[in-house]
């Protein structure tokens, strides 16, 4: 199953655009930072990821504040133009007490 939940901050957001089919879209750069225990050792985890939202979610997401923590839910695909990964966001919720 390709299902991702990520708590991250929006580092960058593009202006709202429209696909050739007329669907609203917005591109993001998300940043995540946390501490995770791996094989019994605490590890600092930092991640920067490209993301995109479509439709009414894009129209709402373009209004979100940069630098605030949100919980993003969606799935991953390969970018059309490269071998990198893009997170397709399907839901966003504000995180009141980020860890």
Automatic annotation (TrEMBL):
Involved in the restart of stalled replication forks, which reloads the replicative helicase on sites other than the origin of replication; the PriA-PriB pathway is the major replication restart pathway. During primosome assembly it facilitates complex formation between PriA and DnaT on DNA; stabilizes PriA on DNA. Stimulates the DNA unwinding activity of PriA helicase. HAMAP family: PriB (MF_00720). InterPro entries: NA-bd_OB-fold (IPR012340), Primosome_PriB/ssb (IPR000424), Prisomal_replication_PriB (IPR023646). Homodimer. Interacts with PriA and DnaT. Component of the replication restart primosome. Primosome assembly occurs via a 'hand-off' mechanism. PriA binds to replication forks, subsequently PriB then DnaT bind; DnaT then displaces ssDNA to generate the helicase loading substrate. Gene3D superfamilies: Nucleic acid-binding proteins (2.40.50.140). The gene is priB. Keywords: DNA replication, DNA-binding, Primosome. Belongs to the PriB family. PROSITE patterns: SSB (PS50935). It comes from Polaromonas jejuensis. This is Replication restart protein PriB. Transmembrane segments: none annotated.
